[in-house]
Every structure is written in structure tokens, then in C-alpha cells.
Amino acid sequence: MLVKKLVATARDHWVRRNMPMHVRARDTRQTFTEILGEESLKGHMLPTGPILELMDVLAGSIAAHVSRSSIATISFDRVDLIKPVFHGDLVRIEGEVISLGSSSIAIQCCGFRHDLLTGTYQHTHSGIVTMVSIDRFGKSRKGLPQLFDEDRADYCIQMRETAKQRLDLAARWRKEQADVDQLPFISADQIRMVDGKNEFVPVKDTEMELRKWILPKNLNINNTMFGGDLLTWMDKAAVYCARNFTKNERMVTIAMNRVLFKLPILASDVVTLRTRVTNVRRYRLEVEVEVYITPVGERVSKKSHSGYFTVLNVDDGGHLKEIEKGLVVDESSQEDLKTLLKAQKRWEFEEEDKNLLRLKPLELAL
Predict the structure, then answer these.
(1) For the whole model, what pTM was predicted?
(2) Which of 1-15, 132-146, 251-265 has the lowest mean pLDDT?
(3) Which class for 132: exposed (0-12), middle (13-18), buried (19 or more C-beta within 10 A)?
(4) What is the pLDDT of residue 167?
């Protein structure tokens, strides 16, 4: 055991000593291609989960190549659906590093589906994934190179500025959410609801819970759960919660925002996913998903992940369908009002969020 530790320490030291000072964004580009979904469901819209899995695997491969170390997913800052993907489609995910911190790596991922009729690739998804370089103890490992390309100096400067703006935006977002918790009282007139709803239910009546056990296929080389697998679980839970609310099977995730990975999920953990509807618009709604882990033999659970999924309501023909149900605004339930006000502030924040996080799509690599 001692020899293994000494070898691992020597290897870490060798990697740090031989880490380049700079890396070019173009040299980090990788592409994964896969045929997704079930052949028996060909032509039906594919859930977002398989796309998220592919993005997570690609981002992990890029981050591991740049850091020359083990890596872990720490957030999916935002993922947007541009066009639907269908079962049986050939999907291509392009990824490239857009910023490097001392130990963090932000990667832009763009999804494309191959159109059989035209032979072209159509842009379907955009997202930003943040990874962190870790050592053998699971701690962040600093010393990453800087992102620089003398042939694209303006681009590198722009990406560094964008990275700073993203950090500032995330800090403001957290502060606005935290400030709501400090309010002594929230009045009903602070909540702006959408007109045209025929029925109203309390937030607590939309809550659902799933409990799952990890299988060996869900574990990565760090013996923790694959981030992509968990994202698939979260997406399925969010969509089912949305369907239960609208009583409509035809719902699809169109955006995923601020999915944070706070704690690793180990093989011995029981995973609980708790969902609730927090905001209802005309055609879409927001579902909050919180993930809790409970080690086997223990009673205390810890929150490990959280995120917000925007789910669109459509009819059998794929056209927008109005959501007739809304959420109750009742001053006697201050916890529900805090949930509604936080969701309202996230909605107001969304346009600025999209403008900063929705970058120009990556061009297809040759």
C-alpha cells in the first residue's frame, strides 16, 4: 500500500512538472457520435437524458485530456434544446474548452442530428459543462495551463471575459435566491401569475419522490456515479412530475439550468430524487429537482445535486398546448410563496442568463 501511494505521489508530481503553460482551444476539440434511442420507437421524439449522458462523457474526455488527471463533473450551467432529436437518429456532439481556471474546466458542447434526406447535420442542443481536475484523494488539483492561441488572441480574451461574467452572474443568481429566504413576509401581490388558468393547486401537491439504487454500470473509474446517468434520472423525474401536473403524456424538456453537483454519489448510497413544479407559464413549466443521498445503514440524508428543468407542453401533433392549471398563491403558506418568488426571479434572470451562456455554436470539425 505504501509503495502504491509513493508511486501515485511521484506520478502527480511528474504530471504537474510536465504540464504545458498554455493550451489552444482548437487542440481540445473532440467529437463523439452515436445512434441514440430505440429502433422500435424510430420517429418518436427522444428524451433529453441520452443527450445529456453523451455531453457528460464527451466533456469528461476533454477535461481528462487537458488536465492529465482524474476529473469530476461539478455543474451543467445550461443546456438548451434548439431542435428535437428522434429515436434512431445519428447524433454528433462537438466539444471544446472555453475557459480554464486553476482547477476548473468549462467546456462548450453542441449537439447535431444527421438528417437522412439532406445528408446535413442540424444543430439541436447547446450547453456548457464545468469539470474539475481532482487528485487521487478526490480533492481539486490545481495547476492547469492557460487557454491561449496566438492566432486567436481576441477569442481567448473574449472567452476569459465571458468566464468572469459567468462567475459574476452565478454569484448574483445565488444572492437573489438566498435573499428570498431572508424576507420576513411575502405578500400575494409580489407573485406575478399567468392569466388563463382554470384550476390551481398548492406547490406541495405537485411534489413527487423517486428512490433508486446504483448499479455497477452507473459507476465511473472513480467508483462514483456517472454524472450523465444521474442527469438522465433527473430528467426522467422532472418530465414525469410535469406530466403528472398537466395530465399530458406529450411533454419534453427544452432547457436545463444550474444543475449543481455538490457531493459525489458512491456505490453504497441510496439515491432519492424529489421533484416539484415551481413555475407555470402559458405553454411550459419549471420543475425543481433535488437529489439526496443516504449511505446504507444510515438514516441521515444529504443533498448532493439540484437543478431546474423547463418542460414544454405539446399535443399529439407536436404543437404547443396551453397549460390550464396553475399554482395557488396563499399568504398563509409562506414556504410555498418563497418557492414561487424564487422561481419568478429565476424566470426574470433567464434572458440575461441565456444571452451570456448561449454562445455561438461550434462549427463541425472535419
Answers:
(1) 0.91
(2) 1-15
(3) buried
(4) 84
DSSP letter assigned to residue 361: P
Same domain, 124 and 240: no
Distances (CA, A) of 283 to 81, 160, 176, 256, 328: 15, 36, 26, 16, 18
Contact between residue 228 and residue 354 where contact means Cβ atoms under 8 Å apart: no
Domain annotation covers residue 301 = yes
Cα–Cα distance for residue pair 352/332, rounded to 1 Å:
33
| Range of the structural domain that residue 110 is part of | 23-169
Q: Is residue 250 part of a domain?
A: yes
How many structural domains comprise the chain? 2
Residue 43, sorted as left (phi over 0), alpha (psi -120 to 50) or beta, turns out to be left
- In whole angstroms, give the CA distance from residue 328 to residue 310: 19
Nearest to 20 by CA among 69, 64, 67, 62: 67
**pLDDT tens across 119-165, in order?**
999 999 999 999 999 988 888 999 999 998 888 888 888 888 888 88
> Helix, strand, or coil here: 301?
coil
Asked if residue 265 is part of any domain, the answer here is yes
Does one domain contain both 111 and 204? no
CATH number of the domain encompassing residue 306: 3.10.129.10
Same domain, 205 and 93: no
Specify the pLDDT at position 3.
63
